[in-house]
From TrEMBL:
Pfam families: HTH_1, LysR_substrate
Keyword presence, DNA-binding: yes
Residues annotated as signal peptide: none
Protein name: LysR family transcriptional regulator ArgP
Origin superkingdom: Bacteria
Family matches, as Gene3D superfamilies: 3.40.190.290, Winged helix-like DNA-binding domain superfamily/Winged helix DNA-binding domain
Coiled-coil spans in chain: none
Ranges for domain HTH lysR-type: 3-59
UniProtKB keywords: DNA-binding, Transcription, Transcription regulation
InterPro entries hit by this protein: ArgP (IPR017685), LTTR (IPR050176), LysR_HTH_N (IPR000847), LysR_subst-bd (IPR005119), WH-like_DNA-bd_sf (IPR036388), WH_DNA-bd_sf (IPR036390)
Entry similarity comment: Belongs to the LysR transcriptional regulatory family.
GO molecular function, one term: DNA binding
Amino acid sequence: MKIDNAQLAAFAAVLTEGNFDLAARKLNVTPSAISQRIKLLEDRIGQILIQRTIPCQATAAGRMLWRYAEEVALLESEVFSALGIEKELQSTKVRIPIVVNADSLDSWFALVLESVALDGTMVLDIRAEDQDHSLAMLREGNVMAGISTSPNAIQGCKVEALGVMRYLAVAAPSFRKRYFSRGVTAKALNAAPMLTFNRKDALQQVFIARFTDQAIEPPIHAIPTTRSFYEAARRGLAWGMMPEQIANQGLDSGELVQLNKQHFLDVPLYWHRWRIESKAIDLISQMVADAAAFSLRKLDT
């Protein structure tokens, strides 16, 4: 059974853009044409591929096909480029969807963005996700590569170590004096307001476990962006775990202090990528490895 390229392109565009109207605009056709192509593709496959939600989501079968569609688009783009006919294409650059945790994205990953800008051959579609949960996006075919804390390669991918991101427990000096004047104790941890990035963020709880095995239930502020997380700590709202690359500015200026200099968390990071022959994925992988080697601590082996 062969898959029609126009139907496959319509399918991928709906998932990438999120709805039928934007997919139609991207492919310069009408929304009804997109709908018809999707219907024909689903009839041919014999399964529903797209959930008509807002935004549109792939079904289990659709996720398998989406990865195939992304591979086809990537390899097609590279072939056109190698043949020297990229000027005839609507887009002259290879699109690479990747998943990066917010802390990396807002710190050392800036070096990768600089390298991509200097290279000029690709565009990045970056999805932000917690480093402990990013592999799900790779499994589902939503991205071609990404950063995770897992050293284990998933099916169809290969993995390489990047380094260690060190997290420090920090707060404003006045906050530490108010809550931790007698040190980091179970009583102080239970009373002191705590920052968390979102429900997936377990770093603070891991740090707490270094000091006590008691059940700790402090007041918790959920702050979902790196910059606002930093500002919340700096302004004395609560304490939280912060990458040293981000915390150092406040530590150097005296606006932040560590709760305990002897205790920190080292989080290993790994780069996962599709196991396909692709110059574009090879290139972005090398850029990430170079940036990590410059910015992250070495991973103990």
